[in-house]
Amino acid sequence: MEWARIKTESGEVLTGVIQDGMLHPRAALGADATAGDPVSMAGNTLLPPCEPGKFIGLWNNFHAAAERNKLDIPQHPLFFLKPLSSLAGPNAQVALPPNIGRVVYEGELGIVIGKTCKNISVDAAESAILGYTCVNDITALDILFEDPSFPQWTRAKGYDGFGVIGPVIQTDLNWRDLTVKVMVNDRERQSYPASDMIMNPAQIVSQLSTDMTLEPGDVIACGTSIGARPIKADMEIVVVIEGIGTLPVTITATDAD
Q: Phi first, then psi: what are they for 72, rounded to 5°?
């Protein structure tokens, strides 16, 4: 099942399930109750497929990257929060602030929470996951380490448009079979198996639920692996996960005053 959010040509925002090229509106994300007649996907704008109360990102969650960077294997998810103002969807234009320095893409698998959960077991966490989406966790590397006394995770990852998700939330797939790819101007620049995760999605949800209550629509980016590279204005960055879809954005420049 594919969940999506669209903005119709009349400006109405709808959440629902895609079937046969039509969006079947639902009362809420994950709900069974219908909320109107089906609407054609044609001519309407895909939005981020959910509006998370929390957008959580993981660091150091892939064996290959940990080995290359000589990092210890964490026992608990190492995470940061992206502000909701960073949220962007398919085909967005992401403007790089002036004088920001190096900025990189990070193609990732995203978990979308379907049930409120707190202090849940790994087994229970499986049923708390609604589905999966594509994520581009854009990061300003120079900002992150600008002040040696304080790594600026929120600032570096929190600029407008730096949290790209979509195009849909797919509920019927096995995350172990997925490969996360990133295309830059039609050239493959990142490709890694989701099965290389240090902590799998259920473990991530279970452990994070000991730190905070997770709620329907919350998004957890599972972290990235080898292959994240700098981006510049006029590049098209596309995260591709077969079974979920493609998530393109165009990078633009903001002129300095």
A: -70, 150
pTM score: 0.96
Cα 33 from chain centroid (whole Å): 26
CB contact set of 64 (below 8 Å; sequence gap of 6+): 192, 196, 225, 226
| CATH code 3.10.20.30 for 48-253 | no
pLDDT greater than 70 at residue 256: no
Which top CATH class is 1-47?
mainly beta
If phi > 0 it is left, if psi is from -120 to 50 it is alpha, else beta; for residue 119 that is: left
Secondary structure of residue 145 in the 3-state scheme: coil
Cβ count within 10 A of residue 43? 9
**Locate tokens 């620049």: which residue?**
189
Q: How far apart are CA 15 and CA 28, in angstroms?
A: 7
pLDDT digits (tens, 9 = 90+) for 84-137: 999 999 999 999 999 999 999 999 999 999 999 999 999 999 999 999 999 999
